[in-house]
User: Fold this.
Amino acid sequence: MKKWKGLAVLGAFVLFALYVLVNQMNLNPLYPESAFIYCVLITALVLIFTLDRVGKLMVVNHQNGQPNISFVRNAKPQRWPVIVVGSIWAVYFLVLIGSSVLFQVNAFRDQMPTLTEMDFASDFDTVNTNQLPIVDKRMAEKLADKKLGERPSLGSQVVLGEPTLQQVNGQLIWAVPTYHSGFFKWLTNMDGTPGYITVSATNPQDVQYVDGYQIKYQPGAYLWQDLQFWARFTAAPFTGITDPSFELDDTGRPYWVITTYKNLRGFSLPEATGAVVMDCATGESNMYSINDLPEWVDRVQPENFIMAQLNNKGEYVHGYLNFSDKDKYRTSEGETILYNNGRCYLFTGLTSVGGDQSAIGFVMVDMVTKEPHMYRISGATETAAQRSAEGEVQQFGYKAAFPLIINLNSQPTYFMTLKDAEGLIKQYAYVSVQDYQTVGVGETIQEARLNYEKSLRSSPTGQSVGNISGDLKTIKGTIQRIGSEYSSAGTVYYIVLNEYKELLFTIQGSLSDELALTKEGDKVEMTYYPKETATQDVASFDNLEFTQANSQA
Assistant:
């Protein structure tokens, strides 16, 4: 009997160890998934050591000679095993129920800090239209895949991981890691996959393959090189970890930033506490609290944590029993990552419960500190803005990407790209947040902006919207300086006139063929809508030197 017990105990621990290894289980019983398995293990051990005291197996031969095995209970079975097992499971379910919203409604509501109301015009960076992030995640994947296809020998060895938007040395990029394409590829390249791909978020033509860095530890790899496995058992065996993010430091060296978290109430309300920062090549890691993170780390807060906390704050604003839905709100459909003043934020709209196309405001949550900024601007939701932009080009069937909110002359505005069925950018669109029927589309960013400003003037709010003031103005002058710059939006020309030296005029190259031949000293005529800034966007351009030459001819 003792031998049987020993083998059974050994078998129980072997199964437990296999479960821990296969599922990379957190060894801390304060987490629900771990607590459940510990309860199962203890129950099994108690049964192994006490089963013979409760009863025993008997083999009885019937008249037909066939043996029958049955379990015969003792006359006075011991109660302590039942008490021990019952107490363990009772504690588990009490903690599980006690940490539910039914008993922790205030904690659910207050996990997200109070939304600090901010002034949009003063807090939000005024956008530079030449630096708008026009490449979204889906497009970054396609561009990275195309770059990988330029190296046939490499493309057969690796596949691409999930792109991560980040700011490196002031440039907004998508970083895309390479992964092993299968077990045998891993077996023959155990030093890791060679490098990663960067895709500029502002210029689809700027796609770079970066080699010289091995990515040895990666999601979905095998045995000890699996990222979750290595992080769990070398860096955080007793700490909750989630949401690994592929990030680059200021030198371009790749790291995994893996969020650490704890539960604030029993088994509920996971809260980010910091991150494990792991070198992709060596597996060396350091655990940091939120306050001690390296400056280049852009995000720690998991998006699903933030969205859940925002929705909890809106759902339980007046407690659990708020059947009238007074003051309730929820996040709108969809969220996005954006950068403001060099910080990474999660952006989403807020709508009242039961609302559809209207937003009561917008919230940006810092992806490191979880500091929430609230902009109380009534207007259209992101989905409504997308449908409005698509309606302007319905004859083409273009689909709008998820919009980005920008500060355009102190006017909160949605900006989005319009794509064809292949995911290629065909046009750009601006949509007013306050009135989603005010739309401007164009084949270039500058053209879309000019059309949007015209639409603003004809909107019910008219010239009072934003800092755009006055009617279309026509001026003549002599060019003092002219220069050009090429970007993903096309060629943009910059002009200073002798008569208006305090103003800088920007002109989209597609506006006039004469721009390419224009030089200092030429007399020109331009129209523009005056703005309360030194930079003015030109609506039409005419080089009078060419006009005069044509008239003389």
User: Anything to note?
Assistant: DSSP finds 13 helices and 29 strands in the chain. The longest strand covers residues 473-487.
